[in-house]
C-alpha cells in the first residue's frame, strides 16, 4: 500500500482536514501525519529551528521543505503502519518535488476539500485551540499563500487524474460519507 496524501485547494485552512483525518484513521486504520502538527511539536520541543518555525506559522508562510520532510520521514519510520494519511502537505511545488525526490513516493489520490473562505474563516475563528495563526490577520495571509502556492500543486495532481473533490461545507457526517466514497474501489469523482 502506497502513501496517501491529503490536502485541499485554496479553500485550505479550516476546511476540516484534521476532523476528517480522525474519521479516516478510525475507519480505515491509516496513520495520520499532519505536517502542521509535526511543525508545532518541533517548535515546542525547543529545537534549533523552533524560532524560525514559530515565525513562519505566525506569518502563514511555508516552512522550507527540508525541515518538514525530515519530520515526516521521522514520523513514518517511527510507526509500523504502511498506510499514511498526510494532512497539509505538500503545500507548494517545492514541498511536492522535494518529497517525491527524497522518498520516491507518490500519493494514491489527493482529497480536495472545497469550502468557501467565509465558512473557513468562521470555523477557524471558533476553533479555540490556542493557535497563534487562528486570527483574522494571519488567516488572510494563509488564504493568500494557499491561492498562490498550493493551487499549482493541485493542478499538477489534477492533470494526473488524482484529485477527488469533496463539498466540505456540509456537516461533518455528510463530508465523511463523501470521503468514504473516495475510498471505495470505484474511487469517487474526479475534479474538473
Ligand atoms: P483544518 O485541519 O482543515 O484546518 P479542522 O479539522 O481543524 O480544519 O477544522 C476547523 C474547525 O472547524 C474545527 O473547530 C472543527 O471542529 C470545525 N469543523 C470541521 N469540519 C466541520 C464541518 N463539516 N462543519 C462544521 N464545522 C466543522
Ligand atoms: O495545516 P495547518 O493549518 O496545521 O498548518 C499551519 C501552518 O503550518 C501553515 O500555515 C504553515 O505556516 C505551516 N506549514 C508549513 N508547511 C506545511 C504545512 C504547514 O509550513 N507543509
Ligand atoms: Mg489541521
From TrEMBL:
This protein's domain notes: Consists of three domains, a large central CORE domain and two small peripheral domains, NMPbind and LID, which undergo movements during catalysis. The LID domain closes over the site of phosphoryl transfer upon ATP binding. Assembling and dissambling the active center during each catalytic cycle provides an effective means to prevent ATP hydrolysis.
Subunit-structure text: Monomer.
Protein name: UMP-CMP kinase
Lineage of producing organism: Eukaryota, Viridiplantae, Streptophyta, Embryophyta, Tracheophyta
EC number: 2.7.4.14
Keywords of the record: ATP-binding, Cytoplasm, Kinase, Nucleotide-binding, Nucleus, Pyrimidine biosynthesis, Signal, Transferase
Main location: cytoplasm
Cofactor, how bound (note): Binds 1 Mg(2+) ion per monomer.
Any GO BP: 'de novo' pyrimidine nucleobase biosynthetic process
UniProt keyword Transmembrane helix, yes or no: no
Chain residues that bind a ribonucleoside 5'-phosphate: 40, 61-63, 88-91, 131, 142
HAMAP family: Adenylate_kinase_Adk, Adenylate_kinase_UMP_CMP_kin
Listed transmembrane segments: none
Organism: Daucus carota subsp. sativus (Carrot)
Role of this protein: Catalyzes the phosphorylation of pyrimidine nucleoside monophosphates at the expense of ATP. Plays an important role in de novo pyrimidine nucleotide biosynthesis. Has preference for UMP and CMP as phosphate acceptors.
Top-level taxon of origin: Eukaryota
Location in the cell: Cytoplasm; Nucleus
InterPro entries: Adenylat/UMP-CMP_kin, Adenylat_kinase_CS, P-loop_NTPase, UMP_CMP_kinase
Binding site for CMP: 95
Amino-acid positions noted as binding ATP in the UniProt annotation, renumbered to this chain: 14-19, 127, 170
Signal sequence annotation: 1-16
Cofactor annotation: Mg(2+)
Reactions catalysed according to its record: CMP + ATP = CDP + ADP; dCMP + ATP = dCDP + ADP; UMP + ATP = UDP + ADP
Amino acid at each position: 500500500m502506497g502513501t496517501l496524501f491529503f490536502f485541499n485547494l485554496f479553500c485550505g485552512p479550516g476546511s476540516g482536514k484534521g476532523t476528517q483525518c480522525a474519521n479516516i484513521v478510525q475507519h480505515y486504520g491509516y496513520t495520520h501525519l499532519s505536517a502542521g502538527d509535526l511543525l508545532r511539536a518541533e517548535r515546542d520541543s525547543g529545537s534549533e529551528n523552533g524560532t524560525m518555525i514559530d515565525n513562519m506559522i505566525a506569518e502563514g508562510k511555508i516552512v522550507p521543505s527540508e525541515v518538514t520532510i525530515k519530520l515526516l520521514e521521522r514520523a513514518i519510520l517511527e510507526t509500523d503502519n504502511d498506510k499514511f494519511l498526510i494532512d497539509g502537505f505538500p503545500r507548494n511545488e517545492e514541498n511536492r518535488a522535494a518529497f517525491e525526490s527524497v522518498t520516491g513516493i507518490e500519493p494514491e489520490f489527493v482529497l480536495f476539500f472545497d469550502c468557501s473562505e467565509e465558512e473557513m474563516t468562521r470555523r477557524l475563528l471558533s476553533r479555540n485551540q490556542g493557535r497563534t495563526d487562528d486570527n483574522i490577520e494571519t488567516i488572510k495571509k494563509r488564504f493568500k499563500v494557499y491561492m498562490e502556492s498550493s493551487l499549482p500543486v493541485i493542478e499538477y495532481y489534477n492533470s494526473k487524474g488524482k484529485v477527488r473533490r469533496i463539498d466540505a461545507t456540509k456537516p461533518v457526517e455528510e463530508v465523511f460519507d463523501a470521503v468514504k466514497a473516495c475510498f471505495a474501489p470505484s474511487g469517487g469523482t474526479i475534479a474538473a
